What does this fold into?
Amino acid sequence: MSDAADIGLLNLRWAQTLVDALAAAGLRDVVLSPGSRSSPLALAFLRQPAIRCQVILDERSAAFCALGMAKATRQPAALLCTSGSAPTNWFPALIEADLGAVPLLLLSADRPPELLGWGANQTIDQQRLFGNHVRAFSAPPLPASAFSTAYLQRLAARAIADSRWPLPGPVHLNLAFREPLLPAGDLLATHAVAACPAAISVAAPLLLPEPQAIADTLAEISARPGLIVCGGADYPPGFADAVSALAAQLDCPIFAEALSNLRFGAHDRSRLCVRYEGFLRPASSLAAARPAWLLRFGAFPLTRRLQDWLRAAAPAVQVVITADSRWPDPQHAASRLIQADPAQTCRALLAGGGKPAPADWRASFAQAEGAAEAVASAAFEVCAHAAETSKIFEGTLIPALLESLPAGHRVFCGNSLAIRDLDAFSGSGDKPLRFFANRGASGIDGNLSTALGIASDGPCVALVGDLTAQHDLGALAATGGRDMVVVVLNNGGGGIFDYLPVAALPEFERAWLTPQSIDLVAAAQSFGVVGERVRSLVEFRVSVERALRRGGATLIEVPIDRQASVARRREFWQRGAAAPV
Amino acid sequence: MSDAADIGLLNLRWAQTLVDALAAAGLRDVVLSPGSRSSPLALAFLRQPAIRCQVILDERSAAFCALGMAKATRQPAALLCTSGSAPTNWFPALIEADLGAVPLLLLSADRPPELLGWGANQTIDQQRLFGNHVRAFSAPPLPASAFSTAYLQRLAARAIADSRWPLPGPVHLNLAFREPLLPAGDLLATHAVAACPAAISVAAPLLLPEPQAIADTLAEISARPGLIVCGGADYPPGFADAVSALAAQLDCPIFAEALSNLRFGAHDRSRLCVRYEGFLRPASSLAAARPAWLLRFGAFPLTRRLQDWLRAAAPAVQVVITADSRWPDPQHAASRLIQADPAQTCRALLAGGGKPAPADWRASFAQAEGAAEAVASAAFEVCAHAAETSKIFEGTLIPALLESLPAGHRVFCGNSLAIRDLDAFSGSGDKPLRFFANRGASGIDGNLSTALGIASDGPCVALVGDLTAQHDLGALAATGGRDMVVVVLNNGGGGIFDYLPVAALPEFERAWLTPQSIDLVAAAQSFGVVGERVRSLVEFRVSVERALRRGGATLIEVPIDRQASVARRREFWQRGAAAPV
It folds into this structure.
């Protein structure tokens, strides 16, 4: 048995070896939540100059923040917390990381095995705490005098690698320490470490499509009317150009969701459709259009309207392309699954020299898109300068918000109604913007903390509903110096339920709508965040532009009159669908 | 609530839809164990002409048989059993499939959810019964009148696809049925189905190595002394030629284990070393040779001697190539992990144009290999015609066995001492032979049943120890018409322990060696299997050749004198190591 002084020193050296190896494997961000048992690792992180440390009290918020950082940087972010119930607060965020395929490294400190089940304080069974929801779990042995540096280095490299491939997601390391946790004496100057070279390099493969599947697909789609549907995804570099070139060769439209990140940027957007929420309505001739084929990339479509239209198109050849082993096909309508890199698959199809669809096919979509665009522009012009509160309508507020943002800005969109409104009303443009949302499990939890994580990588605007804002209000305690503007669409509760059958129930307001009485502006101010409430689109634009100029964190509350919004939407869609096609 | 007649018909239609879709997805083999709850699926399988059904009473044996079939055909094989403890008998085989990366489809029948926990007969909680040890688990809803054919078809295709990629292994579907299990009335002629086209095609990606990793590797290995180590694996087509060409370009030896399947066949074997068990012994000059680099393919090496030699080489650049996300590196010595197809990686390295190692490097290995080969040949010649029992020694019996087999024959090798002896003594040759073993979890359980599964694909010889044979003797009850020769090396218990420190303990014989008193020949005969006992190498060769000519199942017991075998080995290795290099 080592004596106490040895154990503390061993703990720190062990922790520093692991953290150093994580840095060598490319880890650049960790979010720490304070605690005692995690002290050796916390100190090791704080003294590793290659890793940026952020400290967030609430582990749930910390986990969503790390999620946002990993989304923004496209690199794994780590979490560290103490033993007991602390890591269980990570669960909602790691579920999102699991389903959203976001690399996350969970480091839970633990007590030694001899304390588990014997009434020791803050001691729970942390073995495989998150079950199948993590890509890998490991519980290395306690630090001991003869610990293997080679093992710890590869454990670190492997945890990072497992969080990336074959399916990005969370990896959990449970790390037990005996007391004393740290060596006694002055730790002020000692034990700082520099980044060291990696003990092992790991190279994941390029995923090329199987050639026969490409040939078979081309035989099914060439010279026939079809379309490409791009759902939300973090597509690989070059995808926008590759899919545009493929659409040009096949002369087909691309239905691009906001979260596909194809709507904004300098690439060829000439075949994009972003107004299908309008032109697929029953009154439109395209509602009855039936493609012979569909190529689907990314997540299954977001909106009920597009889903229903795809369902009606189900006899069509439906080719789903995905780089991992998940099947985004809840309608069970795919006729071919190509497991490969999406950009490489576009290039392989392009090289196959498919023939264009009949000429009138894409023209009908282009015409409908143009007509819907005209309706949206007209609505925007009418509202842009109106001062009355009742005129604030998501269909004009969202384009106004996007217009005000500088090129390259990040937009995090909350779930429920906000993301559907973004998809319906964002429009598209040359200015690059990068959109994010938590669409893995589509929860309204942790949305502000996720935006906070994204803002760690550069200025971010978050667009969320009032319930979403309230659910994660604690995130505003941790904004630090980040440039983040939170736009809260306050429609007095769960506005999305207005569009569902439950709206007719007598219990509707109490248990679905759940209007809250919180003053969001005052709440923001209580956290030291600038809070403003606007009453018109003009005020909104002024407020956003001021917030962007000022920097730091601002919450802008936008009161939405629910009844008026419902009515405005109906009118908007009727005009769009009735537009000549 | 449907009435009873409807439920039975629904069960059968539902089962036929699923089984038909499994056939369409490429399933060709199922092993059924009899039971009641599984009746709809059993009947559906028996009436699907595209799927071969075998019936094995013992679910454990059935599962190892399916494992062997999947190994031999390189395609998923399915299992079906009833509810209760029945599927738990699959556990040892599916652990082997998990670690051995063998595609297996587990179909457990179940009782409906309302019976679980209410004292119903043969009802256990089968949800996620095998935890993390399966690639995927699914429990579709009970057959109901509005069941979705499209869903069942894709569920079937997905189960097959999940068993193949990204990491081959077991997939578990738990399938509940309500009573009555089958429709009443005459089922003799009705409900037979033909194979239908697949509702969905699935194409897994080609895994190409990341180009930078190839360039970095070449910079590390070009013009420097190194070697290629090929452990056990089911390598992709073309690997033998690709790795031979790479070795030729780099002018380096290839250490090829028996289970690499590189030792026998028409490819270029000029740089192979298969006698390293001899020439890496301390007396040999090569024991102290230190490569500058190692390229490792397949499983981590089998024998302690090669493992130790690799450990001593640990400062070397060690590049591990693996097509999946597992890390075969228990020494934590790899400096680079390339996750990609092994054949494609060889080709990419070859295209990079690496320079050969210094000329004397490979020459020293070639000389040692030649000398060890000469010792083995001399030993073989001495023994081949000797008649005394004491002269039966694994080092000559194994080459004699392999010599007697026709080209293309399958050899299953049991674990423990047999596989190590195969690796040490197989030699190599132009005649193609295909070797198998259960090296995922390396158990002595289920070995004969696995060989039985391999024999379903074509004639197979199994080489196993006496404890291994006894552990799975029940497999002999299910040999059916298969051509299988089981060679049992009977050294009176756990002979491998003779080589370990426990051999000196007073408790050794009782708890490690565990000599058995079973008469294996009589046991075989009790199952209707021909049983013979041989007393010399000459008798052994005659017995094997007769068994191969006769066809069907034969068990040949070869008594081994443990003490004599230990002494013969020592002598053999001393002469090999002392050979001039």
In short: The mean pLDDT of chain B is 93.
